[in-house]
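>> received
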Amino acid sequence: MSLAHQIKPNSAPVIAFDVNSLPALVQRAASQLASATSAAEVLEAKDAASVAYDASKKAARLAKAKGAHDELIAKAHRAQADALEIEAAAKRRLADEYDAAQERGEVAAAGRPKNVPDGNIIATAEDVGLSRKDIHEARIIRDAEVAEPGITRRVLDERL
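>> returned
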């Protein structure tokens, strides 16, 4: 039997996760968000938090499948929650940055893009790499946190 017949199509490689490295991923995302000075840096921090979340989710599944001790699984779940909290904070910042850019006229407000005096068209959400859904979700998270400070962490703690 050839090697091509031994490998299953679309099979993903098995990657071992070290649960102890998850806090470093989460801390990296938190540091990136804390030091972010632009919308692009906020997006990078959001992506780093998303990577940390995905890694901790996979680590929890792998640990559970291997019958790992409850403490390791709990550690992976805590890292997931921390990553989600950072991602939510990044989305809140993104909503603020985007709304401020709209007020300054740097990106188009609702409706069709408008022409500016020199003949250029003001950028849309899609032009800056965001969907309207991304912005909508970011505003929902921001508004919920403004209405009830700490709600993100409380919801995550309840899930844990």
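>> The chain is about 65% helix and 0% strand.
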